[in-house]
Amino acid sequence: MDGSMQNTEITGSFTAAAWERIKSLMAEIEQLPLLERLSDGTLPPEVFRHYILQDAIYLKHYARCLAIVAAKAPDNAQVLRFLGSAQKAITVEQGLHAGFLSQFGISSADVTAAEPSPSCFAYTNFLLATAYHGSHAVALSAILPCFWIYMHVGEGIKGRPAIEGNVFQAWINTYGDPQFAAGAREVIALTDIAARAASETERAEMMDVFVRASQYEWMFWDSAWRLESWPI
């Protein structure tokens, strides 16, 4: 993606440092063919179908990660906040998927039969393991890149002139929506709060999982572009 991508960096001790750590990775994400072609409406339908099926699998597991983060939250407000996010992952975004599944000729049987690609399988298992075994702060750092990177990408694409007839506009509208950005910024702020209360060792682990999840975000989009499947 080009210079029209908006700056979504957040000022804050831990998250500012974390975003700086993935600066070069974000430059690679912004240039991914899948996102470039989605932005201008020229993404091959078979690539988008592959991406949507894998994203449906991913969201099923991501919702469970959000529920685990809620269970580990230090106060009721955060419990409700992350339970609400888990619900949205299942309902709102699956509603978006439903429209695309119909539009691109994907049946419910196709969704049921879909298997995770190697990258999707690795990413979701990393998130689930981190959420189960890590502290609340570490689990927060693992789920944050999905919120933050999608916000960054969505706002960047939404800021460009709209392409008339772009069949992927609903995707752009969803992740470029100010409400989505507000939710992502809230998770960023909560991660900074958790980092301030964490030990030095825990903060190092938070940084490690943030970077790893960000790498998986790149891998997920790249694998969809390549129509990745199991080699054997």
Automatic annotation (TrEMBL):
Transmembrane segments: none annotated. Coiled coil: none annotated. Keywords: Hydrolase, Thiamine biosynthesis. GO terms for molecular function: thiaminase activity. The keyword Hydrolase applies. It catalyses: thiamine + H2O = 5-(2-hydroxyethyl)-4-methylthiazole + 4-amino-5-hydroxymethyl-2-methylpyrimidine + H(+); 4-amino-5-aminomethyl-2-methylpyrimidine + H2O = 4-amino-5-hydroxymethyl-2-methylpyrimidine + NH4(+). Its EC number is 3.5.99.2. InterPro entries: Haem_Oase-like_multi-hlx, Thiaminase-2/PQQC, Thiaminase_II, Thiamine_Salvage_TenA. One of its GO terms (cellular component) is cytosol. Pathway: Cofactor biosynthesis; thiamine diphosphate biosynthesis. One of its GO terms (biological process) is thiamine diphosphate biosynthetic process. Residues 27-226 form the Thiaminase-2/PQQC domain. NCBIfam families: salvage_TenA (TIGR04306). Belongs to the TenA family. Catalyzes an amino-pyrimidine hydrolysis reaction at the C5' of the pyrimidine moiety of thiamine compounds, a reaction that is part of a thiamine salvage pathway. This is Aminopyrimidine aminohydrolase. It comes from Rhizobium aethiopicum.
